[in-house]
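Tutorial, part two.
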Amino acid sequence: MQNLKKIIIKRYNNIKILEKYKQYSFSGLKKIELKLINKFVKKNSKILDVACGSGRVLLVLAKKHDVYGIDISKKMVFLTRQNLIKRKLKAKLEVMDACSLKYKNKSFDCVLFLGNGFEQIPEKMNRIKALEEIFRVLKQNGIFILTTQSALFPDFKIWVLLFFQYVKYHLFKKIKEFEFGDLILKDITDVYIHISNPFFIKKRLKHIGFNLIKIVSEKNKKFPYFTKGLIYYVARKQSIKRFKRL
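Running the prediction step on this input gives:
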């Protein structure tokens, strides 16, 4: 029986994947990321970069902010540390699971969960736990920026693939943690990703206690939920966390 978490860790400890990310490390922020961070994140903020990878985001922010970075892959964290040394920058790095953050309550002004990191957390309950942990470590009025794919993108091929993979992995291969919306794709190594329903993300963020202040897509500005690219959610911590499960 495969374990989805092991698939993820194996991929991001693979030498060829590390080389690929190494080349990507200094590509900088995307225009939309830069715009959102400049608009919603104050100067000299204490920022947590979740699933920091090889440091693409962290290397930019470390110039102006007090930055912390975590990743589930030891080798990714090591690569980020090397990249920081090359650029003579400082950041506090740790190997850590987003579902179990080791930081104290109200530690950060901002938390970033960019790229595909959030959707590489297997199982709905674990993705919810990660959002709750981020809420916990954010200061009052702290900013959270999250990105996901959209399961509502009208692509018949994707919907068929989601259905057949669910049948294959959950029903036939008996991977009980494999849920509808999950995909295992073939690359240098297997790639696990969950394609999110943006209405669920929006509902869950509000339920936890976030005030959702902006939703934007890099490819479909008018209808961000129905995009092929990433959706960016900008939320502010304002209320007391609600633990009741939906």
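The two ends are 30 Å apart (CA to CA). In part three we will examine how such features are distributed along the chain.
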